[in-house]
């Protein structure tokens, strides 16, 4: 059975304070908070989703913010860098913006592209790259116009403790194509036009440790519910243990850990974030699955109030 994912569906990470999280990803990076819900396994913790105007597949960064969380260590068995794509010509704008908000960055080069690398307030490693491909975001916020707005994911750098096995999984399980090697990294490309460029360290890396400032998992796209069932069969046929299909309200998911230590998810594009909120008010209300609705008052009392706000450096 041959399968090819279009690329990254979403990436989920741990951070500490929820308002700091909103201020950084909505206020500074200009992503839209498209869903405010909870960790279904720990209802006293938010699950926040940021993306383009609708939170389309390939654009969504999700977070579990917990004020008392320990700081993690970025390393093997994790996504090392999450890459966001911006329109061609937008990097000078982003250099100026990061500077205005006091976010230190480094300009780096690889595979003929220029990247701005920086961290969020918890040390999560991020980067921006210009890309022609990928649909332009229609969301503007603060001092960011749609001409400069983040489109979605450019891809990721994977930190593997067994890079040969991780690369094999990318090719044999996910259907990515190897397209280059340079300075200790091997580059792969998925079938889509966003979230499609994956770099892997060529040499094993020491294990990281989970906690705030680290990625919990990276999710790959399945085209449909029927395709998702086939993906699970395919993963098992390739010798991995897969979870059952889990309903995450906004997509269905399966999970498996590849041999380099990274937790992979495969998620459906449908139904998306407008299943329980209209476009105009996405992310405005705490959304709960039906089984938690009877506990809404208690859950809301235990969550820190958050708001999407224009920050001071944008003139407010």
Would you kindly provide a written description of the structure presented here, covering whatever features stand out?
The chain has a single domain, classed as 2,3-Dihydroxybiphenyl 1,2-Dioxygenase, domain 1 (Roll). The strands form 2 sheets. Strands 2-3-4-1-13-16-15-14 form an 8-stranded mixed sheet. Strands 6-7-8-5-9-12-11-10 form an 8-stranded mixed sheet, covered by helices on one side. The N and C termini lie far apart (55 Å). Helix content is 16%, strand content 35%. It has 316 residues and is an alpha+beta fold. The radius of gyration is 18 Å and the shape is globular. The relative contact order is 0.22. It is built from 5 helices and 16 strands. The model has no long low-confidence stretch (mean pLDDT 97). The protein has helices at residues 18-28, 91-100, 163-172, 225-237, 296-301, and strands spanning 8-15, 32-39, 42-51, 60-65, 78-86, 105-110, 113-119, 125-130, 152-159, 177-182, 185-189, 197-201, 214-222, 246-247, 251-257, 263-271. GO terms for molecular function: dioxygenase activity. Keywords: Dioxygenase, Oxidoreductase. It holds the Pfam family Glyoxalase.
Helix content range:
10-25%
Mean pLDDT: 97
Count of alpha/pi helices: 5
The biggest beta sheet is recorded as: 8 strands, mixed
CATH architecture: Roll
Enumerate the spans where pLDDT stays under 50 for 5 or more consecutive residues: none
SSE series: EHEEEEHEEEEHEEEEHEEEH
CATH homologous superfamily caption: 2,3-Dihydroxybiphenyl 1,2-Dioxygenase, domain 1
Strand content: 35-45%
| Broad shape | globular
The name CATH uses for the topology is: 2,3-Dihydroxybiphenyl 1,2-Dioxygenase, domain 1
CATH class: Alpha Beta
What structural class results from the helix and strand content? alpha+beta
**Number of β-strand runs:** 16
Which strand order do you get reading across the main beta sheet?
2-3-4-1-13-16-15-14
Gyration radius, to the nearest Å? 18 Å
Assembly level = single chain
The total number of structural domains is 1
Domain VOC: 7-131, 152-269
GO molecular function: dioxygenase activity
Keywords: Dioxygenase, Oxidoreductase
Protein name: Ring-cleaving dioxygenase
């Amino acid at each position: 059975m041959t399968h090819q994912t279009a690329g990254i569906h979403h990436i989920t990470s741990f951070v500490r304070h929820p308002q700091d999280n909103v201020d950084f990803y909505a206020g500074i990076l200009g992503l839209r908070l498209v869903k405010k819900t909870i960790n279904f396994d720990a209802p006293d913790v938010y699950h926040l989703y940021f993306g383009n105007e609708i939170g389309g597949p390939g654009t969504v960064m999700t977070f579990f913010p917990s004020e008392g969380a320990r700081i993690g260590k970025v390393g093997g068995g994790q996504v090392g860098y999450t890459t966001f794509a911006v329109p061609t010509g937008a990097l000078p704008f982003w250099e100026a913006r990061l500077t205005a908000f006091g976010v230190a960055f480094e300009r780096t080069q690889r595979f003929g592209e220029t990247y701005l690398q920086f961290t969020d307030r918890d040390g999560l490693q991020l980067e921006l790259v210009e890309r022609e491909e990928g649909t332009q975001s229609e969301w503007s916020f603060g001092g960011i116009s749609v001409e400069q707005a983040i489109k979605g994911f450019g891809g990721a750098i994977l930190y593997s403790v067994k890079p040969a096995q991780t690369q094999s999984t990318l090719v044999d399980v996910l259907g990515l194509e190897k397209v280059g090697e340079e300075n200790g990294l091997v580059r792969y490309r998925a079938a889509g036009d966003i979230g499609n460029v994956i770099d892997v360290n060529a040499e094993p890396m020491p294990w990281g440790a989970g906690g705030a400032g680290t990625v919990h998992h990276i999710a790959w796209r399945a085209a449909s519910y029927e395709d998702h069932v086939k993906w699970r069969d395919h993963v098992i046929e390739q010798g991995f243990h897969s979870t059952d299909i889990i309903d995450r309200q906004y997509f269905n998911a399966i999970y498996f850990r590849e041999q380099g230590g990274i937790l992979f998810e495969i998620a459906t594009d449908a139904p998306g974030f407008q299943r329980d909120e209209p476009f105009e008010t996405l992310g405005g209300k705490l959304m709960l699955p039906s089984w938690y609705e009877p506990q809404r008052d208690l859950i809301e009392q235990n969550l820190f109030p958050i708001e999407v706000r224009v920050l001071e450096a944008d003139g407010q």
